[in-house]
Amino acid sequence: MMAAARLGRRLMVLPRPRPVPGSGWLGRRHGSSLPAVISTLNAWGFSRRDIDVVIEELKGNGISEAELPTIITAMDEDGVQTFLQSVRQQRQDVTRARFHLNFRSERDKEGFEVEAMEGESVRDLVKRGTTLASFIECSCDGIMACSTCHVVLSPALFGIVGPASPEEQDMLDLAKGLTDTSRLGCQLAVSREFEGETIVIPTECHDYFDGW
Questions:
Q1: 143 burial type by CB count under 10 A (0-12 exposed, 13-18 middle, 19+ buried)
Q2: Do residues 208 and 145 touch, judged by C-beta distance below 8 A?
Q3: Cα-flanking dihedrals φ and ψ of residue 100, to 5°?
Q4: Residue 127 and residue 135: Cα distance in Å, rounded?
Q5: What is the per-residue DSSP string for 67-97?
Q6: What's 164-194 look like in SS3?
Q7: Rounded to an integer, what distance in angstroms lies between the CA atom of residue 197 and that of residue 195?
């Protein structure tokens, strides 16, 4: 897993554990250190399944069993949680269907293609740093407090996703270039059904955070 591997490589720069007789479970020369590691993670509230994932990923990134206690201690509870979330996301991404979406910027009269994963929103594509980030801002981060992610769908696509919710429509009513098939990108979950259709990015947008 790429994110897990990057974190694993950063952890490798930590000092190697040096067993010291009488120093407790961190200094044992014999026997497995796993029971103590498991006990620590369990005390931090991690389930046995999550503990197994953490240990598996760390060992897969070159951390030896003897090093695990030092690494876990250095990561602390928050670090382990962040690492676990990264691993989960990477594992989920591997199994998600990937496909390409077509976009066209009305401002620049430019068309381009973006790789997407099943269930992502247009906002997710922007935040992931795809080409789309150069054309859409998503100022409010998905809370429907702006219309900077306003997009226009083809009639076919609009028929697939359906109309906006009342809350989304309230914000769309303030958008420039509103059409009958307008939607906020942050509220659109894309799928393979989007392939072959083009999502249009209007010339202008309103942004609450810039004072409209």
A1: exposed
A2: yes
A3: -115, 140
A4: 12
A5: THHHHHHHHHHHHHHHHHHHHHHHHHHHHS-
A6: CCHHHHHHHCCCCCCCCCEEEHHHCECCHHH
A7: 6
Rounded to an integer, what distance in angstroms lies between the CA atom of residue 42 and that of residue 210? 47
Annotate 175-202 with b (16+ C-beta within 10 A) or e (fewer).
Answer: bebeeebbbbbbbbebbeebeeeebbbb
pTM of the entire predicted model: 0.55
pLDDT digits (tens, 9 = 90+) for 78-120: 999 999 888 887 776 666 678 899 999 998 888 999 999 888 8
Query: Is 147 exposed, middle or buried (CB count within 10 Å of its CB: 0-12, 13-18, 19+)?
Result: buried
Q: How do residues 163-188 score in pLDDT, each as one tens digit?
A: 999 999 999 998 888 999 999 999 99
